[in-house]
TrEMBL record:
Protein name (Swiss-Prot/TrEMBL): Geranyl diphosphate synthase
Keyword Magnesium recorded: yes
Membership in a protein family: Belongs to the FPP/GGPP synthase family.
Biological processes per GO annotation: isoprenoid biosynthetic process
Pathway: Isoprenoid biosynthesis
MF terms (GO), sorted A to Z: geranylgeranyl diphosphate synthase activity; metal ion binding
Positions of transmembrane segments: none
A GO CC term assigned to this protein in UniProt: cytoplasm
Cofactor section: Mg(2+)
Length: 338
């Protein structure tokens, strides 16, 4: 850890890509609160890459969930799905597929499915019986607009649509790859993945509840890390990755998944609600187990930087030009401001 800090060279300002719709993209840049080692300059244009990918993803999502009967249900499904966001999960899905020789058009249904799963997870997280959040991405949460009953039905519908969309919209991929990708998605979102992480998170709140750093890592790896893992690994599978490539990318995804949540923990206590687009400081109020609470803000930042370095090490054996998007995405995740 000390060596990592010794190699820190300067503050790097990364572009944060937020609030996007199928027709508009809002971009903002802020000074980063994390120090990361400066990479050699390359010709890879990360900003243009993100704009292009987000535009393609938003158009695909808009087409995947048309506003049809029952109108109210599909409105609720579209409300959160198309309300913007960083689109990190579908982008890493596409980037992993392209890294191993696949194509965006082939993996786009899987990438859309990953965003559907992410959307349904935040819709559940925001419910009064869960995290009880009224705002998401600077807008009212789904249940505040449509009510809890319709939100729950929209969650179920998005989960079902994610599977249906992969099966019916994917072209030119052998059935065994589709089955394997869907199996990964099912395992990593169910009782062995994100759902298990959510229940562990719910049970670890309160001033009197003692959580070890190992237990907290387990919670974060399941609640957040599994969705990143599912996105990266399913993209690699669709792209025809070898077993060795899949395992390297799995390790990469575990690093960036945990890193994502650690950064989230830090931002919750260092940023305002306006900057985050959701209520800030709620983890503190709920006495939730977080990295800043257990090891402090500075050590949390150091751990995120260490994970960033470890994630990029997993990509060292790949063609570095093709790996450039995932390398840049890892830096983007550790440097994000909301």
């Amino acid at each position: 850890m000390h060596n990592l800090r010794a190699h820190v060279k300067k503050w790097i300002q990364l572009s944060s890509i937020f609030s996007c719709s199928s027709k508009s993209i809002y971009m903002s840049s802020r000074v980063n609160v994390f120090e990361i080692e400066e990479e050699p300059r390359s010709r890879f244009d990360f900003k243009s890459y993100m704009i292009n990918k987000i535009t393609s993803i938003n158009e695909a999502l808009d087409s995947a969930v048309p506003l049809i009967e029952p109108i109210k249900l599909h409105e609720a499904m579209r409300y959160t799905l198309l309300s913007g966001g960083k689109r990190v999960r579908p982008i890493v899905c596409i980037a992993a597929c392209e890294l191993v020789g696949g194509h965006e058009s082939t993996v786009m249904p899987t990438a859309c499915a990953q965003e559907m799963i992410h959307s349904m997870s935040v819709m559940l997280d925001d419910l009064p019986c869960m995290d009880n959040d009224d705002f998401r991405r600077g807008k009212l949460s789904n249940h505040r607009v449509y009510g809890e009953k319709i939100t729950l039905l929209a969650v179920r519908s998005l989960q079902a649509l994610a599977v249906d969309h992969v099966v019916t919209a994917t072209r030119g991929v052998p059935p065994e790859r589709l089955v394997r990708a869907l199996t990964e998605m099912a395992i990593l979102t169910g009782s062995k993945g994100a759902a298990a992480g959510q229940i562990a998170d719910l049970c670890s709140s309160g001033e009197d509840f003692n959580v070890s750093i190992e237990q907290l890592e387990h919670i974060h790896m399941q609640k957040t890390g599994t969705l990143c893992e599912g996105s990266v690994v399913s993209g690699a599978i669709i792209g025809g990755a070898s077993e060795e490539e899949i395992e390297k990318l799995r390790k990469f995804s575990k690093c960036i998944g945990l890193m994502f949540q650690i950064v989230d923990d830090v931002l919750d206590v260092t940023k305002s609600s306006m900057e985050l687009g959701k209520p800030a400081g709620k983890d503190v109020v709920a006495a939730k187990a977080t990295y800043p609470r257990l090891i402090g803000i500075e050590k949390s930042r150091e751990l995120a930087l260490k994970l960033n370095s470890e994630a990029k090490e997993q990509l060292s054996g790949f063609d570095q030009e093709k790996a450039a998007p995932l390398i840049a995405l890892a830096d983007y995740i550790v440097a994000r401001q909301n």
